[in-house]
């Protein structure tokens, strides 16, 4: 059953919102995936903080328009599905990991901000640390000097105690 004009307008508006509100959009070929597989992918992406949706190519191209990175429009051919996330590495990480176990999913490329990317760019993005991992690394780096100072401050006392114990053992012997 064809979409009404209002439904088409809603889908274009939704995809414009996805492009504006998310750091990354991954475009994939959706041929040969079962409904159960797409549902599994959607669930994994939702748990990670992103989304997955099958899109109509013509409507996606209208939503992309002439914005920077509009070269990505060339990827919308045949059955297409998009994944998106606010964190620029979440969607690529989930998609690349999921695609390794499902040969029917082919990553075509995507859009990060205003930059269009090919499949290799999406794969490279998937190898980068996530926002949470970076925050954890920064926190560890910031707390490391305090831990070093406290261990350095306690070290002379421990050394003196060790020396005194050794001297006491020598006197007893």
From TrEMBL:
Cellular component aspect of the GO annotation: ribonucleoprotein complex; ribosome
Q: Which GO terms describe its biological process?
A: translation
Q: Which InterPro entries match?
A: Ribosomal_uL10, Ribosomal_uL10-like_sf, Ribosomal_uL10_bac, Ribosomal_uL10_bac_type
Keyword RNA-binding included in the entry's annotation: yes
* One term of GO molecular function: large ribosomal subunit rRNA binding
Q: Which UniProt keywords apply?
A: Ribonucleoprotein, Ribosomal protein, RNA-binding, rRNA-binding
Q: What PANTHER family does its record include?
A: 39S RIBOSOMAL PROTEIN L10, MITOCHONDRIAL
NCBIfam families attached here? PRK00099.1-1 (NF000955)
Q: What does this protein do?
A: Forms part of the ribosomal stalk, playing a central role in the interaction of the ribosome with GTP-bound translation factors.
The family note in this entry says:
Belongs to the universal ribosomal protein uL10 family.
Subunit record text: Part of the ribosomal stalk of the 50S ribosomal subunit. The N-terminus interacts with L11 and the large rRNA to form the base of the stalk. The C-terminus forms an elongated spine to which L12 dimers bind in a sequential fashion forming a multimeric L10(L12)X complex.
Record's protein name:
Large ribosomal subunit protein uL10
> Source species, please?
Parvularcula maris
């Amino acid at each position: 059953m064809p979409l009404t004009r209002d439904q088409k307008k809603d889908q274009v508006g939704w995809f414009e919102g996805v492009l504006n509100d998310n750091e990354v959009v991954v475009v994939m070929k959706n041929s040969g995936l079962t409904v159960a597989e797409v549902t599994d992918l959607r669930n994994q992406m939702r748990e990670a903080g992103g989304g997955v949706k099958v899109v109509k190519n013509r409507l996606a191209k209208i939503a992309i328009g002439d914005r920077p990175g509009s070269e990505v429009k060339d990827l919308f051919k045949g059955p297409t599905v998009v994944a998106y996330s606010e964190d620029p590495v979440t969607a690529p990480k989930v998609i690349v990991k999921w695609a390794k176990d499902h040969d029917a999913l082919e990553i075509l490329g995507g859009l990060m901000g205003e930059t269009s990317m090919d499949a290799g760019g999406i794969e490279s993005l998937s190898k980068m640390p996530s926002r949470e991992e970076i925050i954890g690394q920064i926190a560890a780096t910031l707390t490391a000097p305090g831990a070093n100072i406290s261990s350095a401050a306690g070290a002379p006392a421990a050394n003196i105690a060790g020396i005194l114990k050794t001297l006491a053992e020598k006197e007893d012997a």
